[in-house]
């Protein structure tokens, strides 16, 4: 699978470890940065990751920052991306099964490496359930207008 991974400076070590873990599992990994510990802005890397999903250069994404919150918000600004902030394998599995999430987000200050790997394994091994979930997912990929939702 083609997987893009990006972080901010707070999650650099976790990003590097997870990129290596994914490569060792046989995935084609695009590391979108950053590449050193200099302070960076997580939205820039969230946007890069979302663009990789939107243009099809990546099938799935891994987004990391200190809490996972900021970068997941940045990724989700692109309607082609559906990022789910997770902290354990059940939420990772449900994000795929119910929401067809194509990006997993985690917080480096909140999750250990083994739990992060378990989340990635659940995320990548779970198929979208379709059926009743499809119409809801379709709505997630539609930009909101000023019209009140139904």
TrEMBL record:
Top-tier EC class: isomerase
Domain of life: Bacteria
UniProt GO BP: carbohydrate metabolic process
Keywords: Isomerase
Alphabetical list of InterPro entries matching this protein: RpiB (IPR004785), RpiB_LacA_LacB (IPR003500), RpiB_LacA_LacB_sf (IPR036569)
Binding site for D-ribulose 5-phosphate: 8-9, 66-70, 99, 109, 132, 136
Enzyme Commission number: 5.3.1.6
Positions annotated as active site in the UniProt record: 65, 98
One Gene Ontology MF term: ribose-5-phosphate isomerase activity
Family affiliation: Belongs to the LacAB/RpiB family.
Protein's name according to its UniProt entry: Ribose 5-phosphate isomerase B
